[in-house]
Amino acid sequence: MKIFEKLWHGADYNYEQWLDSPDILAEDFRLMRLTHSNVMSVGIFAWAMLEPLEGQYTFDWLDQLMDSLAANGLSAILATPSAAPPAWLSQKYPETRRVSELGIRQPHRRRQNFCYASPIYREKIVALNTRLAERYQHHPALVLWHVSNEYGATQCHCELCYHGFQAWLQQRYGDLDSLNQAWWSTFWSHRYTDWSQIEPVDPSMHSLMLDWQRFISDQALDFFLAESAPLRQITPDIPITTNFMQPDVGLNYWHFAKHIDVACWDSYPRWHQSDDLQTAMRTAFYHDLHRSYKKGLPFLLMESTPSVTNWQGISRLKKPGMHKLSSLQAVAHGANSVQYFQWRQSRGGEEKFHGAVVSHLASENTRVFQDVQAVGRLLEKLTPLTATTVQASVAIIYDFENEWALNHAQIPRSLAKNYRETCQQHYSHFWQQGLAVDILNTEADFTGYRLVIAPMLYMLAPGLAERIEAYVTAGGTFVTTYLSGLVNESDLCFLKGYPPPLRRTLGLYSEELDTLADHQFGQIVPSAENPLQLHGVYEFYHYAELVHPEHAQVLATYDSEFYAGYPVLTANTHGSGQAYYIAARTESRFLADFYTHLTKHIGLENPLCTRLPDGLSIQLRSSVNQRFAFIMNFTDQTIPLEIGEGWQDAVTGLPSPSSIIVPPYDVLIVGQQR
Ligand code: GLA
Ligand code: ZN
Predict the structure, then answer these.
(1) Closest ligand to the CA of 159
(2) What does the mean pLDDT of the chain come to?
(3) What one-character-per-residue DSSP string does 367-433 give?
(4) Cα–Cα distance between 209 and 203 in angstroms, integer?
(5) How far apart (Å, rounded) are the C-alpha atoms in residues 598 and 530?
(6) What is the pLDDT of residue 160?
(7) DSSP summary character for residue 510
(8) DSSP assignment letter at 475
(9) pLDDT confidence band for 235 (50 / 70 / 90)
């Protein structure tokens, strides 16, 4: 794909806001050259400027922009403008506006505020997208479609959406008896006798709300497919993306991922407000997730702020070094771009105080501009990276539907269930130790991974337990924890414990769950002569499951409460593989020690050194004949590291010393032929 030939550097460029400043285009291209920019995302919120009145299209300014991009050697990521409808549309077609849970039609305001089901909205955007595709299909600047902007799962409770939902349910369940059974709706007398009675406004009906969430995600995807259809048809050779966000929006991005050509996301870490190492670890987790959507391909960092945001409550200036470190962190995890929101700071509107490459000072003599310039220069020197990818032997399952279901569930300790944080707690060790991780959903293929970790795998859709069993039988190593295997895809509890394939794989079953108050902790002790050579005393908190081993070997036990002596860590050999169970929420030190021994046991290590000092993270990108290591320091301290012989500085090409010093908030990139 042409889009992966170089590392991209660029920004959202909202030229349509500046049409009455005729000199701005020439000035912006001068500045873009200085920042080594090679791509701009354009037209994202430009519907009102492309179709100022119904059916009256004005492309002249976009023609001028596209031509100038091409003339200046830059590429265009061209957006479809569906994320923000023009006022005339909302006024003439009020049915395009969303309806709130209380049945109130929303006013025209803000953006991302329309009903995905509205036929007229679809008709209008398809007409515009068709014109965009026809007009720019052969344009030399066009390299990628940016469909809409940050689709969300914002709910619309209009009649059309309810009918859509009821039809979706009919498709899924066939008849009402099956639905009533799947939703256990006899509980509190919630049985439905007609499809039209089903309204997704009842948080006590977990299965209903879970299906509603699935439906909204499907509906957003359906809208995406409808508005991209003309692009696919008219420009079959131009790849398509849509910018994802952190998975808090409630869309199942895995389903979108099947229909896009490259994955991208908008990353806004909150640096310097709490522990930067934790922020870096969580950001890395999201980078890995976005890479995993299109496994084997690079992803794009579509947006990041060159300085601050204006919507996070608090956003601190990036300390010296942080801009480069944060940008290169994305590249280290497999991004082939560093792009910003936005190029030129808006003069008015909600985002006038959001950071931009060119601030209101309108000067290249700013700290931010120069930081951006330095990243641009660096990315140009790192072009060989485009031949490489991140290759992961470890997978962590972090599944959205599982998260949605767990979030709804009322369990004995619903406070701080922390599903995602727990996935990140497991991830943290691998992140720090330079062992690449793919972040998967439960539908993914596990073959090829040496280690698959599925914390809090509460919901097991049909076939999942069987696939886990097959993975382990064939020699895989699987780890799961407390709060796993409790419900099926409709949130109905399994009777008689786990489904048989999981029980066989784990070699145990679970009987009870104790939950602890925030201030309560208990102790864990490794069993004498456990094969992982764990020793010492560790703490558990929040959740403590009481499990009964059937075939599993006990590696550690509780040392507190009436269940002292019950297993906390078990290992079960099944076929040619092994399955581990961690029955309690443990301190991170326990996980770090467990995974240190486990990865050694199965022969996984990073190629730089066996144990990295705290504060650093190492990530690798490689191809058959070369590899690059990104050594990142997310602390304000200098950290020394031994990397051994045979590495070159990836920027200068000079041999790297085997003892290196990583300055505070900095990244060193070394490479080596294989
Ligand atoms: C999002 C949007 C952009 C802009 C930025 C500001 O990511 O996609 O349009 O609002 O946030 O941070
Ligand atoms: Zn609607």
Answers:
(1) 2
(2) 97
(3) HHHHHHHHHHHHHHHTGGGGG-B---SEEEE--HHHHHHHHH---S--TT--HHHHHHHHHHHHHHH
(4) 7
(5) 12
(6) 97
(7) E
(8) T
(9) very high
223 in Cβ contact with 204 (< 8 Å): no
| 632 sits in which H/E element | strand 626-633
Name the band, by pLDDT with cuts 50, 70 and 90, for residue 2.
Answer: low
Task: Report which ligand 1 atom has the smallest distance to the Cα of 245.
Answer: 7
Beta bridge partners of 578: 477, 573
In the numeric block, which tokens belong to residue 33?
């050259």
pLDDT in tens, 255-264: 999 999 999 9
| CA 382 – CA 626 distance, rounded (Å) | 13
Q: CA 254, CA 295: separation in Å to the nearest integer?
A: 11
Cα–Cα distance measured from residue 622 to residue 573, given in angstroms and rounded to the nearest whole number? 33
In this structure, which amino acid lies at residue 441? N
Q: How many CB atoms lie within 10 A of CB 471?
A: 23
* Domains detected in the chain: 2-387 (3.20.20.80), 394-602 (3.40.50.880), 616-673 (2.60.40.1180)
Residues enclosing ligand 1, CB less than 6 A? 149-150, 266, 268, 303, 309, 341, 351, 354
Which of 305, 341, 346 maximizes ligand 1 atoms within 8 Å of its Cβ, making it the mutation to test the pocket? Answer: 341
- Direct distance between the N- and C-terminal alpha carbons of the chain, in angstroms, rounded to an integer: 25
User: How many angstroms separate the alpha carbon of residue 432 from the centre of ligand 1?
Assistant: 29
DSSP, res 197:
G
- In 3D space, the residue among 399, 401, 422, 398 whose CA is nearest the CA of residue 491 turns out to be 401
Task: Supply the pLDDT for residue 22.
Answer: 83
Model pLDDT, residue 607: 74
- What pLDDT does residue 606 have? 82
pTM: 0.98
Question: d(Cα 337, Cα 344) in Å, to the nearest integer?
Answer: 19
* Whole-angstrom distance, CA of residue 238 vs CA of residue 1: 9
The residues that bridge with 627 in the sheet, in sequence order, are 622, 672
Predicted pLDDT of residue 154: 82
Closest to 77 in 3D by CA, of 326, 292, 261, 350: 261
DSSP letter assigned to residue 655: B
pLDDT value at position 414? Answer: 94
Which numbered ligand comes closest to the C-alpha of 265? 1
